[in-house]
Specification:
Blueprint: E1 6-15, H1 26-50, E2 54-59, E3 64-70, H2 74-82, E4 86-87, E5 90-100, H3 103-123, H4 129-144
Antiparallel strand pairs: 1-3, 1-5, 2-3, 4-5
Length: about 150
C-alpha cells in the first residue's frame, strides 16, 4: 500500500477593511482557492489539485485556516492562496504563515497563532477579556482535535 504524502499549510485570511467576516466558511475558502487555481494554472492545474486539496479547519474570527494538499502540488496551492483576492466579494489577502508535513506540528504553530490573534482582538477591543480567554481555550481544544 502506498502512503499519500501531504503538506499542511497554515494560512491567515486578512480582509482589507480589517473587519471580521462571520459568515465565511471553510467551503467558501476552498472555492476561492479552486477559483484561483483555475484562473492562474488553468484546467490542468485544477484537475491535478482538485482531488488532493482540502480545508481541514477555518476560523473566520481569527482568520486562521489549515489547508491540506498533496506534497507535489503544495507549491501550486501556496501560489494560488497568495493570489486569492476576494472571499465572498470582499477584498482579502491570504498569507501562508507555515507549512508542515504533519498536522501535529502544524497544530502547535496554529495554537501560537491563535493566541496572538486573540491578543490582537482583545487589544483592539473587539472582544472582552472573559470572551478572549474562553475563545482561546475553545480554539486550542478544536485545533488539538484535528489529528484525532
Amino acid at each position: 500500500m502506498v502512503r499519500l504524502k501531504t503538506r499542511y499549510l497554515l494560512c491567515e485570511v486578512l480582509f482589507e477593511d480589517g473587519k471580521v467576516q462571520d459568515g465565511a466558511t471553510a467551503y467558501m475558502l476552498l472555492n476561492a482557492l479552486k477559483d484561483s487555481i483555475e484562473a492562474n494554472f488553468g484546467d490542468v492545474g485544477l484537475g491535478a489539485v482538485a482531488a488532493s486539496i482540502q480545508v481541514k479547519y477555518f476560523n473566520p474570527l481569527t482568520g486562521m485556516a489549515i489547508v491540506r494538499a498533496s506534497r507535489d502540488l503544495a507549491p501550486m496551492v501556496w501560489a494560488a492562496a497568495t493570489l486569492v483576492t476576494a472571499l465572498r466579494k470582499r477584498t482579502c489577502l491570504v498569507r501562508v504563515v507555515h507549512v508542515s508535513g504533519t498536522i501535529r506540528l502544524l497544530q502547535r504553530r496554529a495554537i501560537e497563532f491563535n493566541r496572538d490573534a486573540v491578543r490582537l482582538l482583545r487589544a483592539h477591543k473587539v472582544l472582552a477579556a472573559a470572551e478572549c480567554e474562553a475563545m482561546a481555550a475553545a480554539e486550542e481544544a478544536r485545533v488539538a482535535k484535528l489529528d484525532a
